[in-house]
Amino acid sequence: MKILGIDTATRVAGAAVVGDNRLISERFIHNLKTHSQNIIPMIQQVMDDAVIKPGDLNGIAVTGGPGSFTGLRIGMSVAKTMGQVLGIPVVGVSTLKVLAWNCCHTSALICPILDARRNEVYTCIYRSSPEGPEELITPAAMAIEQLLDELSRYGDPVIFLGDGVPVYRDTIINRLGSQALFGTMTNSFPRAGAVAELGMIELKHDRPADYTFLQPVYLRKSEAEITWEKKHGQ
Hints:
Elements: E1 2-7, E2 13-19, E3 22-29, H1 35-49, E4 59-65, H2 69-86, E5 90-94, H3 95-101, E6 109-117, E7 120-123, E8 126-129, E9 132-135, E10 140-143, H4 144-154, E11 158-161, H5 165-176, E12 180-182, H6 192-204, H7 223-232
Helix pairs in contact: 1-2, 3-6, 4-5
């Protein structure tokens, strides 16, 4: 089974191919170019590196959110189009779970935070288990203070990952002190290899993978929707 992983959920872009119980090829870019410029060439590059053709793929996995509204739509559009053309299943994978996968064997709690602006983060709290990251709370958009209050109740060390870390690092340290740990440069952002690996797990368990029903998970309304509702009501 060969799975293509696509990630455009945050400021980084990535593509990867997994198969035969190994990561075959992966590309990761954090160069501030738009994902519409990067992602198609990256997909071609990782497939060339893996020496496979589109027809060799058995499925596609894509970060399904939360994250950048525009970024999620780009990745979803590419994945769903490829799935339709190739006639193969497409699965969405939680961006937060992809981040937690980077530290899935730690004894500390794992807390991905994506900057949702307005003093909020997209987040979830995970604990490692033999089956992978286990959710302790439902993924949500919440104020950073609310999240830190929740984490302080556990009393365990917490590894923070994601693009919200540079924004809220000082706030986290001031609130949690030595309880707060932080990911390295190489594991603090989503990796397309993890997207592909999690997608392979989903497909091996025969989870639903019909691209026609696949939609991004935003966790909250867009700024445009909020502005429209303020002007026009619900």
